[in-house]
Design a protein that fits this description.
By secondary structure, the chain is mostly helical. The chain contains 20 helices and no strands. It has two domains: 23-204, Up-down Bundle (Growth Hormone, Chain: A); 220-400, Up-down Bundle (Growth Hormone, Chain: A).
Length: 401
């Protein structure tokens, strides 16, 4: 029998059902990865349809940017109690409840016929998405400890593969002229099937509280968690720009036809997924600190290439570099935060992500407003600064090993 680590023994003891005791680290890893994958598919199904919403509703860049504000607003709303719920009920129960809600919330988006309706449904999509996200990343930290290796980046890689898969499905269905409502319900049913088959293999484990005294309902992040949050902010601002605007960039700046504009989003997601699966090897080779700095440099290089040379091949290559650059940053930040010795995993991840998610809150509208005043190309150029900021911030954190 393979020798178990101390962390694995703790996890096995805290599982309260005999079936879960029989789950091997590999089975647990695959189950958690499946949830990351489906969350990625759901998000990409929405993101890849943004150009359709823009054209069908006759929105300009500023109007679209204002509407996109609604999704991260919904995510921010839940930041104040998502960690509390995950800590109280456990990440497994939270995932079983919120993953289906997230998938169903996706289908509501297709019902929107006006900008305010789309904004309202995006708030709901953001609320369910963030509740699912905190539970999922808490489960990911537990799964990483249970497996005994730094595999957090592979979980986020599964999310990216799901994102790429969702984008490719959307590309095919757009060209087949399938309606959004049918498209979104097809994705929702697949997600519900995943919950049915894989939820039983999740871990009934939450990192024991290392803080003995009673904690407040919501605690402001301090020390290293603030810096990790700002690094996450820079990465998420870049990701948010690519999620919401990459297809539009290829349509408006690179001048691709509407039904092929998703290629920009897909090229970004392809390298983002590839980079996350290479994360374990890259962390071992360069170390977290060096890899974070290298990633910041690659983000700036890729964004500069796509902006200075906005042609099909150079833009695709630039977007691929951006995808590679952001691929490992958030997984590393979450892993560092979730394994700190002062704050429980769920709260630490929430503290960091609460800062990071402000990038999603302000990033999409900012891109739209700058684009309306000048050009979408110029607004993308401003985002390249975030890569340089990541390099600077990482040098200030001694605790990264």
């Amino acid at each position: 029998m393979e020798e178990r680590t101390q962390e694995q023994e703790i996890l096995i003891k805290q599982n309260d059902k005999p079936a879960l005791k029989q789950s091997s680290p590999k089975q647990v890893r695959l189950a958690i990865s499946a949830f990351y994958f489906m969350q990625g598919v759901c998000f990409a199904s929405w993101a890849s349809r943004i150009p359709t919403f823009k054209s069908s509703m006759g929105l300009n860049d500023a109007e679209l940017g204002s509407i996109l504000f609604a999704l991260p607003a919904g995510q921010i709303i839940t930041m104040f109690f998502s960690a509390k719920l995950t800590t109280h009920f456990g990440s497994k129960k939270m995932l079983r409840a919120t993953a289906p809600l997230y998938a169903i919330a996706l289908t509501f988006l297709a019902l929107a016929t006006t900008g305010w309706q789309l904004a309202a449904f995006l708030v709901l999509f953001g609320i369910t998405g963030n509740l699912c996200n905190i539970a999922l990343n808490t489960q990911g930290v537990a799964g990483e400890n249970y497996y005994g290796k730094p595999i957090m980046s592979s979980f986020h890689g599964a999310w990216s593969i799901g994102n790429l898969t969702g984008a490719l499905i959307a590309l095919g269905l757009v060209n087949l002229k399938m309606g959004m409502y049918t498209h979104f319900w097809m994705i929702a049913l697949i997600s519900l099937t995943n919950v049915l088959f894989n939820a039983k293999k999740l871990l009934n484990y939450n990192k024991p509280d290392t803080v003995v005294e009673k904690t407040k309902f919501f605690t402001m992040p301090q020390g290293i968690l603030v810096l990790l949050g700002v690094i996450a902010f820079c990465s998420m601002a870049t990701e948010g720009t690519m999620f919401d605007w990459s297809a539009i960039y290829f349509e408006d700046v690179v001048k691709l036809p509407h039904n092929k504009a998703i290629i920009g989003y897909a090229s970004f997601m392809f390298m983002m997924a590839s980079g996350r699966f290479m994360g374990v090897y890259l962390i071992g080779k360069f170390g977290r600190k060096n890899l974070l700095q290298i990633s910041g440099a690659i983000i700036s290089l890729g964004m500069a290439l796509a902006v200075i040379f906005p042609y099909l091949i150079t833009a695709i290559f630039g977007f691929m570099l951006i995808g590679l650059g952001v691929s490992s940053i958030v997984p590393m930040v979450y892993s560092i935060a979730g394994n700190n010795k002062k704050v429980p995993a769920g709260k630490a991840i929430t503290m960091v992500s609460s800062i990071g998610y402000f990038a999603f809150l302000f990033g999409p509208p900012l891109i739209g407003y700058i684009s309306q005043l000048s050009s979408l190309r110029y607004s993308f150029g401003i985002i390249s600064v975030f890569g340089l900021l990541i390099i600077s911030l990482v040098t200030k954190i001694r605790e990264i090993n």
